[in-house]
Design brief:
Blueprint (H helix, E strand, L loop, with lengths): L1 H22 L2 H5 L26 E7 L2 E2 L3 E5 L3 E6 L8 E2 L17 E5 L4 E6 L7 E7 L1
Parallel strand pairs: 1-4, 3-8
Antiparallel strand pairs: 1-2, 4-6, 5-7, 7-8
């Protein structure tokens, strides 16, 4: 009887192992759907406010009988300052037919005067004391 029982137990073991292998195979695991993982939402980042740069300032030197930089290019909104570093009085005066008019008046040695260019274009200017002193300022948009 014991030998009969041993045969039954040992004959069942391979069948149980086979059933267990089928139950634990990948085909069962592939049907399992886990809960989705939590994905945090991005946090709101405010857009920085626009802070305009200040308009550029250009200083042109007047030395004796000439403008130090005779022809310059600037952007609209630029303030140009003329500084008389010579020994004689000078002016910076726009051409009579210029769309943008300015006149610094007489600048004595050491004095300065400024003008802000608000229109694009090419502007010719001269010194009223020394009319041969001429220069141009090109203003870009």
């Amino acid at each position: 009887m014991i030998s009969c029982l041993k045969r039954v137990v040992f004959s069942c073991v391979p069948a149980c192992v086979a059933a267990l292998a089928v139950a634990c195979s990948g085909s069962v695991a592939s049907t399992y759907t886990p809960y989705p993982t939590y994905t945090p939402q991005p946090t709101y980042t405010p857009v920085p406010t626009y802070t305009p740069y200040p308009a550029p300032v250009v200083t042109l030197r007047i030395v004796d009988d000439f403008f130090q930089e005779a022809d310059i290019v600037v952007v609209r909104g630029t303030t140009v300052t003329w500084a008389n570093e010579g020994e004689a009085p000078h002016t910076s005066s726009s051409a009579r037919d210029s769309r943008e008019q300015w006149d610094t008046g007489y600048l004595m040695p050491g004095q300065k005067a400024s003008h802000t260019f608000n229109q694009p274009g090419m502007f010719f200017y001269y010194c009223r004391v020394h009319e041969y002193m001429t220069a141009t300022i090109r203003v870009l948009e």
